[in-house]
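Lab notebook, design round three. We kept the backbone fixed and only want residue identities now. Task for the bench partner: fill in a sequence for the structure below.
Input structure tokens:
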């Protein structure tokens, strides 16, 4: 809270700055007493305790983070402030700030900083899950990397217990370095320090949390830089830059990167075909450069929504398309449902799990066409892995159940099936900007949400962020016994 307080003093928002400063000092004092009370406290290693601690981060920490929102924004109740804080912490980026309300710059920076720290937390949580559960729950990543030509371990010992700081320090170092690099490059192209910082944090954390004030359009070169750093949400191989030598061949051979490229290519071609008449008109009136910019804008926006960031390109709609078509809205929903790479900040069902589904479907069709075929054990598909395939089906089932329940709850607030499904999908996939894109088309607002619907969306965001690990813990404690030492 000290950084937003400093920004408030610089911008002349002295009352807001004092609020952040005083509450920040209280948090520091409280954290100091807590650390003293727990100093030299030893506990036995427990997977269940670690999962509960991870869950408590997303449930209890927003209570503290919400106080600046509740104090500064008069229109917010405490549940609205809690919703805002948890939405940022889970990198969902769904904001309840009323449209047209100008909030202090410090509040915007606080939203972006919470989301950025939430992205770092997700990286650490993903590494902790790999440590505890091996690589089965997260999609058999070791086999994926061997198959894709990027074989490496993730720097964690699965049999030995290593100190927490030693495990997370490489991740923190990469996260900080990449964030500062993105900020510096954007500032070089744009010259706006705060806007560049917000865009950098929104990109690296995949939260899509940007300034609520009117943002100046960024250049196509800045969008290219953002697209490059969005690749961190497509494959976990980028997370371990300090331990792995990554080259172009390894990126091109990575299974998730190839699948993401195929998906983006297919949807880009379909979108261009769908808008062919508008593109021809643009070509006749503006020239080929404008058509290329529109194609780039579509690619960037689709990439952003595939990584569940939700950043929209300034160029993607074009002068001939005033509103988003139903095809475009459906495309965005499909992309956020797929999501980015497994073990990254991105939400959705993840690219690797989609690849497992496609492999399974291909295997089933092959057996139907050739029922007498004999397959060698060494060439069996990765989708046959018990620890990967069965967990994928269970996660997919629970995610769909959450979507159905959310649609039913949101229908009580007057949302129809299409609107409710979009809201539910945005919460589960942690892609808040998707809601604003769709609700703007429906001319509706989040202000009509009841407290009960807000609580349901909060739960959905946490479950979607934790990839329903908490559901496994609540419904099947024996699930964890497979990984106990």
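Proposed sequence:
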């Amino acid at each position: 809270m000290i950084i937003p307080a400093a920004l408030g003093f610089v911008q002349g928002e002295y009352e807001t700055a004092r609020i952040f400063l005083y509450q920040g000092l209280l948090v520091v004092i409280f954290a100091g007493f807590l650390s003293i009370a727990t100093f030299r406290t030893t506990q036995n290693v427990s997977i269940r305790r670690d999962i509960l601690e991870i869950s408590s981060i997303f449930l209890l920490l927003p209570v503290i983070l919400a106080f600046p929102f509740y104090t500064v924004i008069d229109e917010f109740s405490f549940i609205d402030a809690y919703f805002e804080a948890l939405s940022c912490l889970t990198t969902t980026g769904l904001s309840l700030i009323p449209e047209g309300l100008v909030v202090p710059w410090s509040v915007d920076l606080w939203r972006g900083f919470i989301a950025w720290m939430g992205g770092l937390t997700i990286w650490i949580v993903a590494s902790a899950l790999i440590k505890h559960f091996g690589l089965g729950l997260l999609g058999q990543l070791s086999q994926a990397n061997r198959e894709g030509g990027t074989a490496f371990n993730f720097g964690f010992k699965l049999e030995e217990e290593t100190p927490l700081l030693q495990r997370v320090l490489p991740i923190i170092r990469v996260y900080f370095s990449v964030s500062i690099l993105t900020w510096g490059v954007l500032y070089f192209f744009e010259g706006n320090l705060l806007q560049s910082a917000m865009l950098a944090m929104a990109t690296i954390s995949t939260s899509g949390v940007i300034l609520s004030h009117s943002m100046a359009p960024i250049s196509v070169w800045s969008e290219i830089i953002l697209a490059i750093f969005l690749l961190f949400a497509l494959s976990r191989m980028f997370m371990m830059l300090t331990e792995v030598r990554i080259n172009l061949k390894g990126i091109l051979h990575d299974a998730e990167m190839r699948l993401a490229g195929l998906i983006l290519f297919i949807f880009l071609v379909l979108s261009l075909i769908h808008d062919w008449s508008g593109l021809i008109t643009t070509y006749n009136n503006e020239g080929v450069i404008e058509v290329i910019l529109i194609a780039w804008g579509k690619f960037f926006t689709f990439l952003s929504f595939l990584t569940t960031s939700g950043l929209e390109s300034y160029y993607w709609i074009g002068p001939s398309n005033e509103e988003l078509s139903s095809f475009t809205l459906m495309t965005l929903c499909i992309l956020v449902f797929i999501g980015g790479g497994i073990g990254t900040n991105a939400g959705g069902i993840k690219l690797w799990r989609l690849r497992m589904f496609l492999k399974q479907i291909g295997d089933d069709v092959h057996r139907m066409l050739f029922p007498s075929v004999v397959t060698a054990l060494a060439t069996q598909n990765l989708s046959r892995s018990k620890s990967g395939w069965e967990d994928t089906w269970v996660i997919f089932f629970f995610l769909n159940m959450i979507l159905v329940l959310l649609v039913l709850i949101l229908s009580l607030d007057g949302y129809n099936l299409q609107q409710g499904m979009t809201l539910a999908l945005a919460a589960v996939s942690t892609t808040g900007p998707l809601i604003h894109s769709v609700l703007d088309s429906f001319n509706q607002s989040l202000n009509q949400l009841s407290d009960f619907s807000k609580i349901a969306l909060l739960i959905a965001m946490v479950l979607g962020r934790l990839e329903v690990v908490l559901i496994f813990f609540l419904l099947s404690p024996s699930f964890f016994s497979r990984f106990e030492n």
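Keep this in mind before ordering anything: The chain has 22 helices and no strands.
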